[in-house]
Design goal:
Helix content: 25-40%
Structural class: alpha+beta
Largest sheet: 4 strands, antiparallel
Order of helices and strands: HEEHHEHEEEHEEHHHHH
Strand order of the largest sheet: 1-2-6-3
Number of helices: 10
Strand content: 5-15%
Shape: globular
Oligomer: single chain
Length: 353
Amino acid sequence: MLTSDQIKAYALNELGVDKIGIANIERFEDAPDFSDPKNIMPNCKSVIVFLLRIPRGCYRGIEEGTHWASYTVFGYTGIARRLVQIGYNLSKYIEKKTGHEAAVVSSATTVPERGPRGNAVEGKARREVSVHHRIAAFLAGLGEIGYSKVFLTEEFGPRQRIGVVLTELALDPDPIPIPHICDRCRLCVNSCPGAMSKTETVTCTLEGIDLEWVQLETGRCKQAHFGFDRKTSPFFVKRFPGVYMPMEKQENTWLQAHDLGHALFDAQPTLAALAHHEFYLAVCGARGCHRACMKHLEIRGKLKETFEKKVFAPMKYWELPEEPEPTKYHGLTYGPGEEMPDEVDFFSGGSWY
């Protein structure tokens, strides 16, 4: 029979995860009802949570305003696909070695604003349930949920993505550390393009530990993520120089913002090129929730993984003007005498910058 240590060794040495922990199912008793792993696997005994670090350098292009694809591929969409593959291989390993069922829980299993759907039926799970990956990672002893709601570890700060596998195999759980990384500096809130509430928070108590994180405006988060913040997206400004949608005034739901992003991606050449390869660009580059937090933790010397360049970058960010300025061109919009073509062949190699 597999032990916790054997599963961890396989994940670390064979599958290449950067950190792994285990929670027993009893720890989820106080978690949100829709996030109960038993909604997915009724006989679940253990929740295995693993992390892949995000390379620090893949934030560099957006930080400097030069290159957006690296963060999307190596810090967001691409890494999420690798997490699913690792979860698949780990699930196969557990089932083959023990005869107990195991299942991957994708981070994209539900649209956040919907929550569980349908009426509860005895003995059956409600539709569109999920497992709160950050709560699972906390209960597996991997770190803590920061004020921004992003998961933080001592090794990498906010630089990781989370994978989850459920299993009917009973395993020894890891201890849960008391939260100590986040100091509630609120730089995440002040640096984010309007997606974090200035006053409202969410609180819960898990395993006797009180947790709190900021209330997210999920529609604004998704709009900034898809590049509709004029201050941080050269692609939107260039293609729609006269459109003014200040983030703090947007009232779209997450789903409406998601649909708007997909509708307009093909109208923006760089975004269309990535979408052509099945990627959707994370245009904001996690400006507040990742980069501002990472810089702050590095300045404080709080992270175990260190670099030759001890602090990633100064706190000050580049910005484009938020309001349209039709007589001024900032190197990222079509200038005087340039006409926006009705159709652009994005894949023929022509220059559009």
